[in-house]
Amino acid sequence: MAAAAAAAGGVPSQQCFLLSVTGQVESARLAGADQLYCRYQLHGGPDWDIVTGLEEGISQVSRPSQDARQLLVWNLPVEVSYKATNPYGWPQLIVSCYGPDLFGNDVIRGYGVSHLPTAAGAHRVTLPLFVPESTSQLQKLVSWFTGRRPELADASSLATGDGRDVMRVRSQGYVTCSFQVVTKDLQRLGYDNGRRAPAGAAGGDLQPAGGGDGRPG
Amino acid sequence: MKSVSWNHRAAVTQKSIDESESMLDQIRSRRGRRREAGSQDESQSRSVQHDDTSEPDETLTFRPSDSVRADVTDDVTDAAGGGEGGPSSPAGRLGKPDRGGGGDSPRAPPPLAPRRLSAAGQETFRSQLKKRLSLAEIKGHGRAARRSRAQPRTSRFDTLREGGTSRAYEDYMRATAAGRTGPSSVQAYDFFCRIWEDPPSERRAATAPATPREAGEETSGAAESLSLSELLGGEQLGPVTRHVAPMILSRKAQLAREADIYFAPSPIPIPPEERLPAGGQARDPAEDGIYVPRRPHLAGRNLHKLENRLLHSSDRSWFGEDGQLLCLPDPLLSRPRHRDYRDVSEDALTDYLPASMEAPRPADPEPTVSAADQPQQLQLHVHLVAVRLTEHPLFSKEHRAAAGLEQLHREYTAMVDDDTVNRLTQRLWAVRRARDGVLSAALQLPSADHGDHTADRGDHTGDHGDHTGDRGDHTGDRGDHTGDRADHGDHTGDGAEQVQRRRIDDYTTSIQRLREQRDAAAAQQRRLCRSILRRWRELKVLREDQGFSSTPLRLAVRELPSDHGQETELWQRELRAELEELRTEHDRSKQHQDAEYRQQLSEWRDRRRQLGSDSDQLGPRPQPPAEFDPQQVLADIEARATGNRRPPGEPKLAFDLLDTHPITATADCPKPEQQRRQAVSRCQLSVRTLIGGREVSHTRPQPLSQQLVSELHQQLAVRLRAAPEALQLEVCEEGTRRSTRTLAKLRLPAPASHVTERTALPEWTAFSAAGSGPAARGRLQAALYWGVDEETGSVLAPPADPTAEGAAAAELAAPDPNDPADASLTANMPDPCAAAEGGDRPAPLRPGCDGFLTGAPDPADSARCRLLRLRDAGVPEFRHVTMAPLRDQQVPQQLFTAYQKRLEAQSAAGAGAEEAGGDGGESARRSVLQYQLRIKEMVARRLRAAQKHKRLEDMVREDEVPDIGTIGSVFGSLLSVRRPLNPPRKQKQSRPLVDLQGQELQLLCHVVRAFNVPVRRDTDAVRTDYSRPAPAAQATVAQSSLLPKVSVRPFMELTFQRQTVRSNVAQGPNPTWNQDLKLPVTLPPQGVADLHSLDDVIHLSLQDEVLVDLLDDDRLQDTNVHQRIERRWLAELTVPFSTLYINGRVEGTFRLNTPPLLIGYECDVTARGTLFHLTESLPTGQTGTYVTVFITLEPPVNVPPTVQEHLESMETEKLLSHCELWTRAFRRDYPGRRVRCTVLDVTGRSALVCRYIRPLRPPDALLAACSNEEDQALLIARFVSLIPNVSDVNFFSGMYDLWTTCQEFLDMQAGDEEEHAILLCNFFLYLGKRAYLVLGSGIPEGLTAYVLTDEATNRWLWNPCTGQRSSAAESYSSLLSVGCLINAENVWANTQVYAQPSCISFDVNLVGDWRPLFTARQPAPTEMASVQAETLRYSVTDTARVRTDAERLERRLRDHLQNWRQRTNWTPWNRPCSDALRRMLPLLERSTFTPAISGAQLADEQTRLLANIHATYKVCGVPLNVPQHSQEAMVEALFALGVHRNDSREAEFALAVHMEPYPSNIVAVWVCVAALTRRR
User: Fold this and answer.
1) Which intervals of the chain are annotated as region Disordered (chain A) (predicted)?
2) Three-state DSSP state, B1132
3) Which of B767, B897, B918, B1239 could join B1299 via S-S bond, C-beta 3.0 to 4.6 A?
4) Is A167 within 8 Å of chain B by CB?
5) Model-level pTM?
6) Residue ranges per structural domain of chain A
7) Per-residue pLDDT tens for A74-94?
């Protein structure tokens, strides 16, 4: 383990690339939710290390907007910088939304997960939300009454594929996030994420781009 | 009937309103009287009504009951007086409850002010009136409805109510409006009491005044209407209401009428013929091969209703040809679609590029990718349509005949379609015309030669012939005569004649050739015709003969219309032309023949001249060439033509092969045919597609129809990197038992580059069975084409290479499966059994290169790649590597060196395991360790897949559904006592491990009390208690048993992971603490999830706190206190953490692990029972110290359940299911009792437990050591207990209950209770004891295994891990419950009421007490091969090596002790004491298995050995005996003793290590450590 620690600590800055993401968990569209707050957490692979920023955050309680859109706006800032030696395990953003149900119990309203955009630039990502389903109708009824609906034991397990086969989920709504992504040294280290930095610029070109459902290698 | 005209009414209304009001007053008062009298009730009024109905025609006589009158007046009154207050309630009239409040109670009518209606009043009046009227309407309807059943006809009352009332209003209104005068009293009476009978038209007019006629009337009586309209503010009163008498009909009539109107569609299906248009026949498009999409599901009942409804409206257009309702295909997709990528723009989608190992190019960040480098994107689509068999073992005779007929018909059709005969005829004529043209052209030239040829064909003029001849050349000959045409023009030259002649010759030969061809083709066609007819006749005969038909084939012969005259003319022309040609040919050949004849004749004459006329050798005279005989030739030609071609009179036939012959139903067929059809219906065909020898798809098996056609209709798309040469298809026959037999193989060449879906046509390809299988022949219909990129529209095909393609096509056009050139294709064929299920998705395929890009360095060489791979594989050294360096150079090599070393050691251990032993000692131990590692790795590998399976509970947190029991307990808790006298412990809800992230896990130990603690023996010289008097007085006090002797001050100390916490000090040998001790648990580096791998041991030691007086000066004792606290180790309890982890808690009263000899202390047996009643529960004669503790984890953790994977087993399925059922039944009946039938071995196979039991010979050394059988047993038990006890959880790092065999157990030198017990049991069986393996639960280890020996004297329960035995009847045993007994033959589950060993009988033959696994009904398998080896291999222990090991260990422990005593930096070692201790240790070892050596003897021996030392020192020491697990464990145990904490400056130490060697490298390790204090 000592060797592993040495390996982890002794990565010189030339030998890793940086990914800096600033953004917001902007809003949610979730039918039937009167009040909602969300929690985000970032989950990176073993070769990813947070340089600055918070790995987790929790938002205020939001109410739907008084118009047809019924948006639940949080604008919860997400700011994190990673350094990494391997695109494997590209960080993922996991959003969990909670809100009171009919009886005032705080219940889970939706989980959503998405990779952070791989390409530099501004991105808007829409995360579909889902909640685990009860195992039976009776269970559903009981959980509705008691306000203890099934929820994930560990939301970060969404970032891994484990156990996804055993749970059944139901779609809920969408969460919209916006990210501004800056990468450094990806090209220098031979990784091609589809974007060419303009000559002399370290960061990415900040032209608007679509959502970043990229596929890290 | 009297009708009242409007005029009359107008007259009536010429009254003042005052009058009317007065009249109203009268009426009201009358009504009031009636109400007061209360004489009217509902029943009466009803009776009146009934009376009325009996006299419907009574009109003029009015016998009004008061009620009727009151009813009428009521309304009028209310209406009139509506301006005032609320409407007076008429509810009392009929007692109707719906009329609102107050109706029943008699009340005064509201005061009606006699006044004129003001304008405002008019408004109110109007509204009131409307309200009233609508009310009346409602009333009328309601009543009518009520009475509709009882009363078929309208009563007068109703007439009055409904017709009269409204008119009365109007009249009244008019009166009020016109004259504002009320009617006279007579009129008023008349108004109310008369029966108004109007003709229906009148009534309608009254109620509907808006009709034009009415309007006219209105104008005629302008005065009244005008005033009325004035009154209503210019607004017509309007059609206030219309009361229609309910039409009461009898139920039957009603139903009859309803039947006219209503239509109730029946849910009964309609016969299909009704659904079809008249005379139509149902046609199933699916049978015709037309794709029929799936219809949406509709319940049959509803569908039939709908069909009935549609048919009822006589609309057949809703039904299709098949008689089914027309509908769109089911719009629902059978497969759920996931998310769409609307939100994701195109450029954001990352393109997958294969990883390349090229070094990054920092200088040039713009790698240019040329088009050539781009991998080809090819997409080949294969559309398999159908397979039609033409020969197969399942074919019947009829099928064969039908197939023959079909074949003939196909050929015939091809010929007809091709129009061969006609074409050749046309061509023939064209050439003839061309020749004629040339001839006629030649005629124009002055040529002598052409003079012979008279152009007798008047129908061909020269120029015309030339023209048509050219055209004929073009159409027919296709360049056969290009050479001719080329020199067509230069006939003017010198050789023109020559050319002409040559051309005519050419034409003649080609005419001859064409004629022959035409004749052959015509003959062929005619032959085909004949054979088709013959075959058809045969088929018909066959069908008749066999009495049934199984093919639907029917030949329809049509006679095509033909013009007889024209045909004859053509025929004749043809004959003439041919004759002419033959004549020409004959003429031409005649010249040759004449010359020949002449020559032959001259020769013959010469011969005759020489030989004479009568000579035999002369031979016949040569005949002159035959003259052309037109008659004869014509006859020949005609005969030939009739044979070959259709003569003019013969009907022209066309054949149509139809599928309309009725097939005999299977039931009507004879048995063999039925069997054949069944066999056909069972048969299924599938097609396997191989590209480049790799299987890319295997279609679903499609059933074979009775016509032996299998409709496949499957498409697949294959994405390719390189264009394949050909596609290999295999037609497979799916048998009944999932066996697939390849019928035939065929190859389809890859399509040309331009072939896409639009241009590709399914083509039939014939195949025939290859190899030794039964003959099968058939045709496969398939289409191959290239895919089209949807976006760019480009064809995803290889670039067209004309030469290669042509060559390939030429090569592949005739594929031969037996061709050795195809051997490479067939060699790469995958095993048909391992055929993967191919779907419709494009299967990625990379022909050629399988790994990384060629030319790149092998990634396995890259250190980083290796690191990542090892990490991914979960190799322990790499599992926790983070931030794996990016470049090879930065990968730390020490990572690999450690791993490499381990691998080498393992391989070395594996190699050296056999010849080990000579090395002995530590190296043997190391090899054992390696062996353990290997086994661990193997198990981990085997069960990794199982471990990865997550359950729903791991992922999702969900409340349990409350069942009846929970609900019951909830209600029960309401009724239960609030503070019960015997409160039970509430179970804490444990949580899954993931929940514990970030929380501190604590070890919680509640020590209650201990008893029978050893007391100090050697109390002289040192004052151990300041409360005691001076030493001088000590002797007397000590002897006095009356005073409580404070002989020991014990406390408990909990040590875990080098952390220590201790309890308070209690007094005396039976202390009580009641204290919680808590220690944090340091989690393993991997986190909580690896908690099971924590192999630390919880040490709970009982120690004595000794106060040592340090005051040197006795005089100061009264004033000063100067003492030192010393601690002395007395006993300990060790609980492996895994035990706590598995069981959740450890609680109970445990016997502490006391050394056989405690120097300086003694167990005061006499103290027991005299002072404390607590000890009474102890078994008599039982020595030892006991402690009551409760240990648990805080917060409680959820233990993952034991992996119950259904892996392969060596047992039969039947036996396994029996075991399963038996176990389940027992667990249901007796929850909590442990029973096992099958267990997993290290290879992951499950086996019956009985297979583990087998007599095994113990090591000879042990048998030889003692002669006494009992001693032998004890020694063997000692031997077994010396094998280190390691839990499966620790060992196999997972919740597996694996049972190793005895050999593996000995080799690994590690195992849990079961392995110990099995080994012990097997040894005992060898000794001839009746031994059983006992599974149950005990303390402290939870689920455990013991050995029961049934001996003559007693039944003993042996604890295999301690080697100690106790009588089964003893009430105080560490075995708490017995679940089952196991021996080599059977398993018996305990079905007795109690499970405690002391309470149960161990006679397994008692059916009521023990439930056997195998009974007479379910016997044990006959041959039950044991998993154990016949004899165990015992490696020889090297005693010399053991001795050196002991020395080494002693040195090491000494070093450790010195290190721990850093504070005092001086650790003097007392050598003589160490020697004495060393001498004592073998005796201690012997005492463990020799009951003859009692504690007293030991004490004596110790006194003898330590006599000298005792004289000078006060010795306090502990002998420690541990099975040799590892030296680290030994160090830990020593640390837990706490001897090093002696702070005394004068303290000296003694340490001795003794290792007693046992066979098979088993060593008993004794460590004795003592602290010495010099006596003063």
Assistant:
1) 195-217
2) strand
3) B1239
4) yes
5) 0.46
6) 13-204
7) 999 999 999 998 888 999 999
